[in-house]
Amino acid sequence: MDHLEAITDITDRERAVGVIDPRHIKFGSRKYYRYIGSLTIPPCTENVVWSIVRKVRTVTREQVRFLRVAVHDEWDSNARPLQSINKRSIQLFRPDNKVEN
């Protein structure tokens, strides 16, 4: 959470917070879903690869607030409704390198 606190500066200036190596993020599970979707905000650009960790984790309200301030998110809700899956496939990746559709 130190990185979140470091980037919640309300000014528009940039500040280095150091390098964050994604390999050090503890997900609690190596299983994850992956699919090709689109951005959640306009212009809703397609062909975005989404990776979603299978295990649900929790965060505190303070962590959500820090992140929303850091990315300048003033919205109270999603920018658009859920979209249909159409013909996209959702894959489950598991640690034993098996991929399930």
UniProtKB/TrEMBL annotation:
InterPro entries: CA_dom, CA_dom_sf, Carbonic_anhydrase_a-class. One of its GO terms (biological process) is one-carbon metabolic process. PROSITE patterns: ALPHA_CA_2. SUPFAM superfamilies: Carbonic anhydrase. One of its GO terms (cellular component) is chloroplast stroma. One of its GO terms (molecular function) is carbonate dehydratase activity. It comes from Gossypium barbadense. It is found in: Plastid, Chloroplast stroma. This is Alpha-carbonic anhydrase domain-containing protein. Its main location: plastid. It holds the Pfam family Carb_anhydrase. The lineage of its organism: Eukaryota, Viridiplantae, Streptophyta, Embryophyta, Tracheophyta. Belongs to the alpha-class carbonic anhydrase family. It comes from the Eukaryota.
